[in-house]
Amino acid sequence: MSIDFDAMIGFLQSLVQTESLSCREKPAMELIAREMNRLGYEDVGSDEYGNTVGVIHGAHRGPTLMLDAHTDTVGIAPGVDWEHDPFGAVIEENRMYGRGTADMKGALAAMLHAGAALDRSRIAGRIVFSASVMEEVVEGFPLDPVIKRFEPDLVLIGEATDLNISHGGRGRAEIHLETIGRPAHSSSPHLGANAAIMMIEAVRAVEALTLPSDPEMGHAVMALTDILSEPYPGHSMIPSRCRVTYDRRTLPGETEETVLAPLWEIGKRKNFRAVIGEARYTTYTGVEIRVPKFFPAWKLDTQHDLVRRTLDGLRSAGFSPGLTVWQFCTNAAYTAGLLDIPTVGFGPCREGQAHTVDEYIDLADFKTAAGGYMGIIRHVLPIP
């Protein structure tokens, strides 16, 4: 079979026109399920978290390859002008514009159509296609019911790689620093202990930390993202509590303890405590997810069989791929970082296109990526 590119583009337009913020993906999932059924996927359904799954069974026995693409997107910042309607899926000069085109509804549509177009008599194993929820807020953890049900041997994530192969990615941790002072009237500040001033000293010490580095991923990152003192507003009050949030981008081998240990040492001197934040979200199905906001970094050896087969598959499809690593965090933090399932990434678009104003996907790359997915699957699940 061959891919019907007109149908693939039409499906992507419909998907982009369907808003799907994290925890509100239901309309998009219903659209995806209909497309799965139309394309001949089997066992189409959703789980308690709302992930939508379909299966392609090969004619021969073999491993289970999970293709994963998240359905949720970030929102549109108020007051920021888009030249193109973010939900219009406008096509102009061979580009489709709209929220989620690059991150990552384009890859989702290409993967879905590529899997359906394969000759099942030439596949050994099965393809489990997972349209997943809530990646933007809890990378990978909502995949738990998919993993438990299908027990994939291998995973392919469709996040942006600019048509190269990603064999690793940074992780992410949300860290909260907290100082506790003593309240006083602001006309007599000397009678209190100002938690905000204490936090200023804490932040200065934290900002001076030397962070680890990786030869491929570069330096770990620790970015201050918010600061809040209480009571707020502080009407004639010295703040007695202050909290800072850091976004910490982690490297392979780092754990919650190794990330927090240097902060705990500084905290002893600067009188603050440091903890990993907790994610607490309710899926569109009504199920609450509560997990620590620590999503591990990971890296697969470049000589691993999955990496080599993925390279061979892309080369057979006419690509000249390079090996790269993601600077951002993906669902692979769960499959590879936490569960140690061999995982690679391949997708159209560049990382820098995600979450931007006038986000877009180049339609030539969109079509090319679909052919790349077919080549990868043929070489990862070859007949004996």
Key structural traits:
alpha+beta, 9 helices, 21 strands
Computed structural class: alpha+beta
Oligomer: single chain
Helix content: 25-40%
Mean pLDDT: 96
| Order of helical and strand elements | HHEEEEEHEHEEEHEEEEHEEEEEHEHEEH
* Overall number of strands: 21
Give the N-to-C terminal Cα separation.
21 Å
Give an account of the 3D structure:
- Helix content is 30%, strand content 28%.
- By secondary structure, it is α+β, with helices and mostly antiparallel strands.
- A 6-stranded mixed beta sheet has the order 1-2-6-3-7-20, sandwiched between helices. Strands 9, 12, 13, 14 and 17 form a 5-stranded antiparallel beta sheet that branches.
- The longest helix is centred in the C-terminal third of the chain and has 18 residues, at 363-380.
- The protein is elongated and about 80 Å long.
What is this entry, summarized?
The protein is α+β, with helices and mostly antiparallel strands and 384 residues long.
Chain-wise SSE layout:
Layout: H1 5-16, H2 26-39, E1 42-46, E2 52-57, E3 60-70, E4 91-92, E5 95-97, H3 101-117, E6 124-132, H4 144-150, E7 154-157, E8 165-169, E9 171-180, H5 195-207, E10 213-214, E11 218-219, E12 221-230, E13 241-250, H6 256-270, E14 273-276, E15 278-282, E16 288-292, E17 294-295, E18 298-299, H7 305-316, E19 323-326, H8 332-338, E20 343-345, E21 360-362, H9 363-380
Parallel strand pairs: 3-6, 3-7, 7-20, 8-19
Antiparallel strand pairs: 1-2, 2-6, 4-5, 5-21, 8-18, 9-13, 9-14, 9-17, 10-11, 12-13, 15-16
